[in-house]
Every structure is written in C-alpha cells, then in structure tokens.
Hints:
The chain has helices spanning 25-34, 94-105, 111-118, 120-140, 143-163, 168-179; strands at 5-11, 17-23, 38-41, 46-49, 58-65, 71-78. The model has no long low-confidence stretch (mean pLDDT 95). The strands form 2 sheets. It has a 4-stranded mixed beta sheet, covered by helices on one side. The chain is elongated. It has 2 domains: 5-78, Ubiquitin-like (UB roll); 94-179, Orthogonal Bundle (Helix Hairpins). A hairpin with a 5-residue loop joins strand 5 and strand 6 (71-78). It is built from 6 helices and 6 strands. The protein is an alpha+beta fold and 180 residues long. Helix 4 packs antiparallel against helix 5 (143-163). The longest helix is centred in the last third of the chain and has 21 residues, at 120-140.
Amino acid sequence: MSELRAAVIQDDESGHVLMLGWMDDEALAATRATxxxxxxxxxxxxxxxxxxxxxxxxxxxxxxxxxxxxALLVRVHADGxxxxxxxxxxxxxxxWRTILRRQAEAAEGSYVAxxxxxxxxxxxxxxxxxxxxxxxxxxxxxxxxVVSEAADLWFHLLLLLRSRGLDPAAVDDELRxxxx
Length: 180
C-alpha cells in the first residue's frame, strides 16, 4: 500500500466541508478514472467507493493537492447525505445529529420523536410560541433568560426543519446566497 493522503471532501456549490477520508494511490487512481470518490478504508484495509452501500455517491468536480502533495481537496457534487447518519456533512453540529439519532431511535418518551411524529403543524406552533418567549425575554428579562429562551427557539426551529425533511445546511446556503 502506498502512503495515505488526507482527502477533504467539499461540496462544489456551497463550499461546505462534507467529510474527511483517506486516499492511497489506488483510491486516487480509481477516483480519477471513474469520477466517483474512492477511499482507502483503514479499518477494512481495502479500497471502497463512497456510496457503494448507501447509493449516495460523490461526483468529482476537481481534485487539488496541497503544497506538499500529502493532502487533497476534492470538490464534489453529492447524490445525497454524505454522513452515514443521514446528515449532509460529517461535520454536522451535535444538536442536529442528536435530533436525527433520537428520531431514528423513536424511543418511547422521547420529546424529539414525539414532536416529529406529530408533524410540521405541531413543530410550527412550537416555533411560534418560543419566538414570542424570546422576544418577551429580550424586552423584560435578564441575559440568562434570553439565552435560555433562544436555545428553546433554536431547538424547535431545527425540529421544524427536520419535520419538513430539510437540512440546516439549506438555511446556511440561503444566507450565503444573500451575502453576495
């Protein structure tokens, strides 16, 4: 096996970092030959193509080596979520990852699972309630209360996005587009 290079996988359109993988010469050659990202799995000790089991392949737009040629930036278009947990990116914030996990587990007594099972109408009402509580706290309460209410709003807004099948990365993309 040749030396491994870190391969930073970046969405070509948004610029979001999606994941980090490892490429040896064989993985890099397979990636260039097929236009689909291949990695060397250190745990399985073999070549593998991203998406071979999930169907969420990474289509290469560009491969850029760093100045020492020991790391690669691979700009891609993803067919779907990149992370094995269903997230757009393996660098997804912990709260979103927790929401996805609790929805998948659907444990009895889980507020997340229950709220998502109730659907967008329930989560939309909760977002409205929490937004009012943030505004009231901002006008009449101390900073600790504002932070507490903002946390509730943030959490319920993420639940609303999930209940609609949206990823927070789409919100980030929208804000980036407005910046231009």
